[in-house]
Amino acid sequence: MSEALYQSIVLESSRNPRHAGRPDVFKAEGQSENRMCGDKVSVFFNGAELRHEAQGCTILAASAELMCEAATGKTTGEIAILSDKFEHLVKTGQETPELGELNALASIAQYPSRLRCATLPWSALRDAIARAGSTGGPANG
Amino acid sequence: MSEALYQSIVLESSRNPRHAGRPDVFKAEGQSENRMCGDKVSVFFNGAELRHEAQGCTILAASAELMCEAATGKTTGEIAILSDKFEHLVKTGQETPELGELNALASIAQYPSRLRCATLPWSALRDAIARAGSTGGPANG
Amino acid sequence: MSTTLLPLDVHAIRRDFPILSQKVHGKPFVFLDSGASAQKPKQVIEAMRFVMEEQYANVHRGLHYMSEKASDAYENVRDKVAELLNAGSREEIVFTRNATESINLVAYTWGRTALKPGDAVAVSEMEHHANLVPWQMLRDAHGTELRIIKITDSGELDWDSLEQVFADGKVKLLALTHMSNVLGTYTPVERLAKFAHEHGAKILLDGSQAIVHRAVDVQAIDADFYVFSGHKLYGPTGIGVLYAKAEILDSMPPFMGGGDMIASVSYQKSTWAKPPHRFEAGTPAIIETIGLGAAIDYVRAIGFENIAAHEQHLTEHALSTLSGIEGLRILGAAQDRGGVISFVMKDAHAHDIATLLDRQGIAVRAGHHCAEPLMGRLGVTSTARATFGLYTLPEEIDALATGLERVRKIFA
Amino acid sequence: MSTTLLPLDVHAIRRDFPILSQKVHGKPFVFLDSGASAQKPKQVIEAMRFVMEEQYANVHRGLHYMSEKASDAYENVRDKVAELLNAGSREEIVFTRNATESINLVAYTWGRTALKPGDAVAVSEMEHHANLVPWQMLRDAHGTELRIIKITDSGELDWDSLEQVFADGKVKLLALTHMSNVLGTYTPVERLAKFAHEHGAKILLDGSQAIVHRAVDVQAIDADFYVFSGHKLYGPTGIGVLYAKAEILDSMPPFMGGGDMIASVSYQKSTWAKPPHRFEAGTPAIIETIGLGAAIDYVRAIGFENIAAHEQHLTEHALSTLSGIEGLRILGAAQDRGGVISFVMKDAHAHDIATLLDRQGIAVRAGHHCAEPLMGRLGVTSTARATFGLYTLPEEIDALATGLERVRKIFA
Ligand SMILES: Cc1ncc(COP(=O)(O)O)c(C=O)c1O
Ligand SMILES: Cc1ncc(COP(=O)(O)O)c(C=O)c1O
Question: Are D88 and D219 in contact, with CB atoms under 8 Å apart?
Fold first, then answer.
């Protein structure tokens, strides 16, 4: 149905996030912004732990939350693979079991102009990982 | 016929002008230019006598010649009337006996973009008369 | 809500706009985004087709039939625009790409010659970026100051702030929107022009939104500059208008250099053509200008009195219908306001609203509407916005309300 | 002359151009003024109709179906232009109104930042005003120098003069036409780019005429800037292109301020979007850009090899046919020349020629062709000019010759 995107996992993740908020200590912060709509997201990378601060729409908030949930405990190499799979998911709408709850965002593929809402947290995460790496942090999986 | 504009009076006046060339003495010179095509005309006013220097197309040259011929010996008041009648002629294509040989230019009305070729000498003449007037010359009819 | 007593025969008008009978996601297309760009009547499409199929050539420089026809048609639109605005003469009308270019043209030419470093330009808190960024760029390049006139909480110009901004006599240009593209507020342009002139300033009005809904008389307003875009007035893209008083245009150096804007060219020195051609370098948007002419004919045939009454009717209907939706807040409450309704909803981000409405075939805009500083003033990062045109039906506003109820339920 | 062995099926092509079957003054329309602006194939007209009737809304900022469709279609043309020019990336393509605006954009932004007072810009004696006046204006505003490279009597770039102009190392920009709109001369752009780069200068090529007839590869040329207009390439008016290398565009400040060209706006400071959007302020020429896309599809489907061969064929035919006319003199005799033939006739002024031909249904241009200084160099005040497009038939050149014989008789 046409409102598939706003299914309960998405609404729930955006409303009751468990990985939201700036932590007191972190190795690196990554940021990403969508100038078209003013949405912003920060991702705080701390080796195994990830947190986010998302300012924007439901899709952004849900994507940030689902991303942190899925990427926590992964190596940067595993995160890179996950990130590629997610990109494929949101562009094609084709779900894959490895993506677990991230599959809830599959139908964003029908809304090309909203794609960046879903991918924004992932670019912030890549930014954070790059920063952690360049400052010599230990986060290389 | 379609080439009516280029009838013999027009061709003849442009080829063998009798009022062309800068005189040694004159009361005032008036100029006019068409920036679109680079055509230029100067009119030399000397009370009763008029001469012209036309650089440009056949229509311009013919119009300058026919104008000098028609306006020579006229008062500035009479010239103003003639000028209005000529303007009317080239805009409407309607000949009037008072205009004499100037009527040869009637069919310019079918060529709106060439209108200025015909009217350019007349604006140079008005310019010359204005200058003669403003320098206190005796040319007021 | 019924459609009886509409000031316009909207159903007949809608038949002129082929796109309105499209379906979107299988639903009837409800287009509430005319404020961003309006749809085009078949009269405009036909005028453009006609010139391309029957009377096209480059203008001004041609001595042949097609060029004459195209030049006449092109220049004829200058007369139509002059009439539309009641300009003093056709030479006061300059064709540009859009309102944005019109304002930039003024900033680059008049701004860099008539204004001196230290002079100030005043804009309001509710300007579109098009009427803010060019003055910032002028400030940074030329040393003028940029001052901001506050708006009240109801979304009207704050007259106290206006007076403060003008108090030291440095303001030489008041650049203001004639109608806000976010709040729908109309500004009292006659009064403002008088105020500006009494304080030794010129006034530039951004008519991008206002021109669509009201008869504009630049002489009655006593505007020094007035700008708008063709594409919001049911015309094509790629064509905009700058009106400026003749003596001001005369004093302005050219903006761009090239063909058609010169009187003569030599390597040492070129001399400029008279306005308006001085400001129209190169091959103009011939086809689009002719399209704009058809759009002007179209709206004038309907009549601005009727258009304004229709807009009033729709605006009232929208305000009353939408304010009944729980958790929805409409931004701005100006006395004199028109068919631009921005709103936010509790728990639902503007983009989510727009996406969910789109799935129901309803097109609204969401975002900062090119007015970021205004968003800050309103304490939001973005809004959803519904805007109306002369083809908008009250039923479409009802459809919006139904759609919004559905959005509310999803996010409840 | 027969039409056999034509590289193109011109008769089939002509059926795509509705205007070509018009009559002018009761005569078949012979359009030999494509160099000023080309006619439009029905594919272009149809693409514009389609967007207006079926998929129109403002681009970029919309989250609804119509806006997405229009944005996709608009941005898609950027890819088409990038392919047409073989640009390194789509981000190197900026949409403007026309070639004139493209050059002015470079002069205003790159010219006022990368060039310092005392640096020189070099142009040739055969530039269109569009590639001369902006550099004069830059000179007068910014203190750069303007240098003129001579041409030879055959109408080719004078290499000695080029070397002299560059000798002191001050020239930082070589701004040249890729094909003269008066003489038909093609300039050796690869060699010139190499020369400019070796001398520490950038090269800007005015491709307004060349793009119509030849495959252009900006990477093979190693052009820093390349500009053209849509309307000469069988596309609509109101849309032009600026190509610039990515690193150059990145370094350039914006030209106009407004919507879509910003990253963020506050009263104190705004930040600019990345190229190409940084240079596209306000609502772009959406419909016209889409029309240009259709024009590019059209010419590419025919193929530039065929188009170039056709032009070559017509040019040779014209040169041989017209040179047989008593008292007629063709201007320019470059080795590498294309379908632009300027001529003068003994005793007949160019305007009289144009008017008399028009009465026979034949459209040629007459005047200085926006190249006043070149007229001076050639020792004329104006010329008549016949230019060819992909729909031009050899028989039309024969008709021109017949028409000119008639003109000759009138003035004999
Ligand atoms: C060589 C050349 N450069 C520049 C231009 C200017 O093109 P436009 O008027 O489309 O900006 C033209 C066409 O008039 C031209 O032929
Ligand atoms: C109030 C206002 N000013 C200026 C503009 C800019 O118009 P354009 O993008 O057509 O230049 C708009 C439209 O976006 C507007 O609503």
Answer: yes
Please name the residue that has the structure tokens 């020429």.
Answer: D285
pTM of the model: 0.95
Q: At D397, which amino acid appears?
A: I
Tokens of D177: 């036409």
D252 is a domain residue: yes
What span, in angstroms and rounded, lies between the C-alpha atoms of A123 and A64? 10
Catalytic residue among C45, C308, C370, C380: C370
Q: Is the CB of D283 under 6 A from ligand 2?
A: yes
How many domains does chain D contain in total? Answer: 2
C363 and C238 in a common domain = no
DSSP C260-274: TSEEEE-SS-EEEPP
Domain that holds residue C337: 3-38+304-407
CATH number at residue D84: 3.40.640.10
Active-site choice (D308, D356, D370, D380):
D370
Cβ neighbours of residue C361 closer than 8 Å, sequence gap 6 or more: C23, C24, C25, C26, C27, C28, C29, C30
- Whether D195 shows a pLDDT value over 70: the answer reads yes
- Is C122 exposed, middle or buried (CB count within 10 Å of its CB: 0-12, 13-18, 19+)? buried
Q: Which of D237, D277, D240 is nearest to D260 (CA)?
A: D277
Residue D412 domain flag: no
> How far is it, in rounded angstroms, from Cα D128 to Cα D182?
9
Closest CA to C121 of C157, C158, C165: C165
Pairwise CA distance, residues D249 & A71, whole Å: 37
Q: Name every residue whose Cβ is closer than 8 Å to that of residue D5 and which is 6 or more positions away in sequence.
A: none
Ligand nearest to the CA of D35: 1
List strand residue ranges (DSSP E) for D53-131, in order.
Answer: 93-96, 120-124
Interface residues of chain A, partner chain C, Cβ below 8 Å: 2-3, 5-6, 11, 36-39, 55-59, 111, 114, 117
- Ligand 1 atom at shortest distance from the alpha carbon of C259: 9
What are the structural domains, with CATH classification, of chain A?
A: 4-134 (3.90.1010.10)
Specify whether the CB–CB gap between D390 and D13 falls below 8 A: yes
Residues C264, B113: C-beta atoms closer than 8 Å: no
Task: Compute the distance between CA of residue D36 and CA of residue C284 in angstroms, rounded to an integer.
Answer: 12
* D83-104 pLDDT, tens digit each: 999 999 999 999 999 999 999 9
Residues of D with CB below 8 A from A111's CB? 63
Answer yes or no: are the C-beta atoms of D352 and B57 closer than 8 Å: yes
**C326-360 per-position pLDDT tens digit:** 999 999 999 999 999 999 999 899 999 999 999 99
Stretch among C193-202, C218-227, C264-273, C307-316 having the lowest mean pLDDT? C264-273
Identify whether residues D87 and D54 lie together within a single domain. yes
Of the residues C21, C31, C50, C52, the best mutation for testing chain D's interface (the one with the most D CB atoms within 10 Å of its CB) is C52
Please, where are the H alpha helices in D95-217? 99-108, 110-113, 133-142, 159-166, 189-198
Top mutation candidate among D183, D237, D342, D370 for ligand 1, by most atoms within 8 Å of CB: D370
Token pair, residue D44, equals 């272009």
